[in-house]
Amino acid sequence: MTALPPRPLLRAWARSVAFTMALSLLVALGVGDEGLALSALVLGVAGLGLGLLYFLFPRGLHFAFGTATGLALYATLFVVLGRAQFPHAADWSRPVAFLLPVLAFLGTVFWRRRELAEVAEKQEAESLDLLPYAARWLAGVSAVGLVCFTLPVNRLEAGAQALALMAAMAAIGGVVAVSVKDVVRLLVDVALIMEELGNRARHLAVPIVAFLLMYAVLVIGFGAAYRVADGLSHHALFMGPEGPIRLSYSDALHFSIATLSTVGYGDIRPSDDGARVLASLEVLAGQLLLLFGFAEIMRSRRVRTEGPAGRAKAPDPHARDPHVDPDGAAGHSPPPRRHGGD
C-alpha cells in the first residue's frame, strides 16, 4: 500500500470530516421531529466515530466514508422502526436504544483494532462475487427487525415499549459486535465502490453538461411559447385548481418542466387543443432528448475505450507485412533458383 504524505492525508481526512458532518447534520435535522436529543446524538456519534477511526486507522479514509453512510442509514431506519412499532416508548429510552448498536460497533472495533487494521485501510474493493459475506450479519439484523414488525409490540404500554425497544437494539448491537469484521468489510467496500462510480461519472461530464443545456433550452423555449400563446389568446388556455388561469412566466416554466419530465402534477393543465398539441410536442422532444443523452453516453464510453477515432488504427501502407516475402508474392515463397543448365 502506497504511503501518503502527511499533508495530502490530512486534506483527505478534512474532506472526510466535512462530508460526514454535513451528511450527519442533514440527517439530524431530518429526524428533528423525534426530539432534539436524538438530533444532537446523531451529530455527537458522528464526531465520536470519526475521532476514534482517525486514531485507530489514520489511513482508513474509505472506512470513514463508509461509516458515515452507514450511520445515516442506521439513523433513518431507527426512526422508521421506532415510529412504526414503538410509537409510545418513553422519550428517555430512544437515545439509549440508539446508542446501543453504535457503542457495540465502536467498542468492538477498538477491541479488535489490530485484527481490523488491514481491512479498514485497504484500497481496493472486493469482487462483487464476494460481497454476499454481508448476508451473514444482515440476516441477523433483518431477523430482529422482522420480529419487531411481527409481534404486536406497538400495543404495549409506554414502559413495556421502551424495554422492548432497548432489547431489540441490544440484540442488533450483539449481532454487529459478533460480525464486526464483516461489517467493516462491507462499509469499506461500499465506499470504494462509490468512489469508483464517482471516477466513472467524471468521464461523463461532457455529455451530462450537453444534456442539461439542451434540457434547459427545451424548458425555456416551450415555457416561453406557452406564455406567448396564452398572452395572445382571448381566453385562458390553461386551467388551475380553481378554474381558468392566465399563465405568468414562472407558471409557464413550471408547467414546461412538469411536462418535459412527464411528472404531471396536475396543478396546471392545458384546456385548449393548441396548447395540448404544444405540450405533446414537448413530451416527444423530451423522449428524443433521452435518446440523445443515452447515445452520447455510449459514444463517450466508446471513445474512452477505443481512442479518439473510435476505431482501430489504420495500417501504415509503408509498413512491412510479416506475411509478405520481399522476394516473392504474399503468402508464398519465391521459386527455387535452378543451378546448372537444362
What can you tell me about this protein's structure?
This protein starts with 5 loop residues before the first helix and ends in a 36-residue tail after the last helix. The chain has 342 residues and is mainly alpha-helical. It folds into 2 domains: 6-201, no CATH class; 205-306, Helix Hairpins, CATH 1.10.287. 68% of the residues lie in helices and 2% in strands. The longest helix is centred in the last third of the chain and has 34 residues, at 273-306. Helix 1 runs antiparallel to helix 2 (36-56), helix 1 (6-30) packs parallel to helix 3 (61-85) and helix 9 packs antiparallel against helix 11 (273-306).
Q: How many strand units? A: 3
Q: Which value, in Å, is the CA radius of gyration?
A: 31 Å
- What is the overall pLDDT average? 79
Question: What is the 3D form?
Answer: extended
Our count of helices gives: 11
Q: What are the segments in which pLDDT stays under 50 over at least 5 consecutive residues?
A: 310-314, 321-333, 337-342
Number of domains: 2
Alpha-beta content class: mainly alpha
**Biggest β-sheet, characterized?**
3 strands, antiparallel
Helix content: 55-70%
